[in-house]
Amino acid sequence: MKKTFMGAALLALTLLSCGRQLVEKVDLIPQVDEVTIGKGSVSLAHLKTIRTAEGWEAPVGNFVRDVEKAMGTEMRLVEGEASIQLVKKEGLPAEGYTVDISRKGVTISANDVQGACHGLTTLFQLMLGAAEGKLPVLSIQDQPVYGYRGLMLDCSRHFWTVDELKESIDQLAFFKFNTLHLHLTDNQAWRMAVDKYPELVKAGTHYPNYPELSDKYYTKDDLKAVVAYAASRGVEVIPEIDLPGHSTALLAALPELSCKGGKFEAYPEESSWAERKRAGENMVCVGNPKTYEFAADMVDALAEVFPSKYIHFGGDEVPTAVWEKCPKCMALYRQQGMSQPGELQDYFTRKMSELIRSKGKVMIGWDEINDRGAATPEDVLTVWRDNGVKAQLEALERGIPVIMCPQHGCYYDWGYAGNSTRKVYEWNPVLNEGLTDGQKALIKGAQGALWTERVATQDRVEWMLYPRMCALAEVLWTPQEDRDWDNFYQRITAYYPVMKQLGINYYEDDAMNEKEFVPSEEKPALVRNANIDTNIPVNPPYHAEYAFDGKSNTFFWGGSTVGEGHYFQVNLGEPMTVSEVKVITGDSKDYITRADLLLSEDGQAFEKVAEFDELGQAEAKVDARTVRAVKIQVTGPHTCWPIIKEVMLK
Ligand code: ACM
Ligand code: ZN
């Protein structure tokens, strides 16, 4: 173990061994680099506010702060109060900081706003763990391993209010993330108002059959407020407009940018497949010069609101079938001497990259833009497909910087069985062996991704993200040789009360120590004598028995969408006296929400005891009832393939 890690471990031990407990437990997440403990302690009980001579002030022990104003002002604290000084110190690394707690007060030094934010966060984390408001005399020196530590949040499939985005930003800042990538457009909705194209957020967010989900979007001022709020917490917001695919909502507003014209309609994720019109035609026409005028206007609109030097222009999942039948697209194809339809996307990619660079910005795109080598070292790729190994190597071999966001490790719309907290913790952004130092330097960092097709509330956002984002925070901040799952496991579970105090709706994972559910490595073994009867086709190897094996991180996965008439039944070999029954289905996109839960005493006649809720769970207390069979009876259509994690009887 390196000295740095020892330092942190020592801190916890020293404090815990004091007769008079100063700090209940120092559970800093991510783990800080170096800690030196001095003699004595400092009372910070009355340290409620940071004040500067200029009159700026902010409460301590709260996420609220405005560091930009404070930096460089050499904060002077009001007489008679313990003081926090925020000092700009040349020579500290990007985002690095020091925190010194002495009898005179606290000094936080940093060379940039982010570093100051992280220093304040560390102090805040220490204070949250402090008993009787006392902290030991100590100094901390800390900096991150990776410069890009982020979250991609899908604002299209479901909408997050400005206040909810601020809440998410507070949580990111608390775990020392520095980037929020907002996926602002997709088939389901176009969320960013653009003055020149008012129709975008009208047709692009309106669903006649779903008024309660309609008309939700961000004005320019909303987004500027989000950007400013994030900046003052050391978080940069990178916007994404997803082109040339994923564009149904755009085409609902501007059908003239499609290949065939006619009427398009945005659809909410809550709609059935049958309700979704022209869902397979979701790409703009790349043979139409108007598409490029529109794209240039979008770059201008984004640049006006978002100061980030990066603009994400999507580029993922673009089928070419519609282009192949479009006279305009095919004229471009012939004129450019193309030899395969995918080159039409490459043409679009190159145009976008040039356009974005001409405005002084850098284009980021999903990794498909490099499939045929259209991306250049002046662009950045977000690597997302599968485990990311291939796309990472293909980018680095061509000198293209990458943000790692592979499905394995970083997709948190996946359930906790597929991307467990432990799997995230043991993940590493460097996926290929034998990379040169120069290639490794092109790995800017990583981000979690939360697609929100089936995530409809802020509570659920947090449930999917935490504690996995805590694990990712440490992967990206702390050197790999200082990371240790057992140590993290102890800290994170000890941290739950802090998360509760902060209002973070984390997921309490009873399979926290599991790595990942890989069916080929784990034979299903029923928890008791029983057989399973279902008319839902199996999606091998996710067999039905995984739903009754006593483990919530293994699951049955059906091989088709389900509707009325589908059932899943566990027949017990011997009757069992049951006082509680609970079924948990997928915590990812694939959960059952329209179904009844029934029990039978004789295996023939069933009685309904509960309904599944919108989160895919059903539970009932029953009074010492004899049970011979449990049945999940689907009562309505689903757009997903269902996952059943566990049928639990007590
Ligand atoms: C993606 O998940 N389509 C980037
Ligand atoms: Zn076309």
Structural topology:
Elements: H1 3-17, E1 34-43, E2 49-51, E3 57-59, H2 67-70, E4 83-88, E5 97-102, E6 105-110, H3 113-128, E7 134-142, E8 148-154, H4 162-174, E9 179-183, H5 199-203, H6 220-231, E10 236-243, H7 248-253, H8 289-305, E11 310-314, H9 321-324, H10 327-335, H11 342-358, E12 362-366, E13 380-383, H12 389-397, E14 402-404, H13 407-410, H14 421-425, H15 437-441, E15 443-450, H16 458-465, H17 468-477, H18 485-501, E16 530-534, E17 556-557, E18 567-585, E19 595-600, E20 606-611, E21 617-634, E22 643-649
Helix pairs in contact: 4-6, 8-11
Report a brief summary of the structure:
With 650 residues, this protein is α/β, with parallel strands linked by helices. It has helices at 3-17, 67-70, 113-128, 162-174, 199-203, 220-231, 248-253, 289-305, 321-324, 327-335, 342-358, 389-397, 407-410, 421-425, 437-441, 458-465, 468-477, 485-501; strands spanning 34-43, 49-51, 57-59, 83-88, 97-102, 105-110, 134-142, 148-154, 179-183, 236-243, 310-314, 362-366, 380-383, 402-404, 443-450, 530-534, 556-557, 567-585, 595-600, 606-611, 617-634, 643-649.
List keywords for this structure.
22 strands; disordered N terminus; 7-stranded antiparallel β-sheet; binds zinc ion; 27% helix; 650 residues; alpha/beta; 18 helices; single chain; globular; binds acetamide
